[in-house]
Task: structure prediction
Amino acid sequence: MKFYDKGFIYKYPNYTQVQIFSAGTAVLDMKIYEDRVCKSTFECQDLKTFNKKNLDESYDEMFLKNLFDRNEKEVIYRDKENRILIKIKRD
Result:
């Protein structure tokens, strides 16, 4: 997955929602729960499967949720071995 556009991170009691838009159209709408990740296509995967398909199987199951739940103005995660770069900038 590669996205370079603006988006929103919403935190709810039971999940974190990540929405990314390009030219006003949602290109990613994902809900991250404690035990699964669901995309707007209604496809849900357990966290281990999601990591294996989209990141790397070595990642901790809570990696993605913990990353988006951080309250820092800028979050940069770089994994050179797996060629993964995640940048989150909050306005």
Observations:
- The mean pLDDT is 89.
- Strands lie at 6-11, 16-22, 25-32, 36-39, 44-46, 74-79, 84-89.
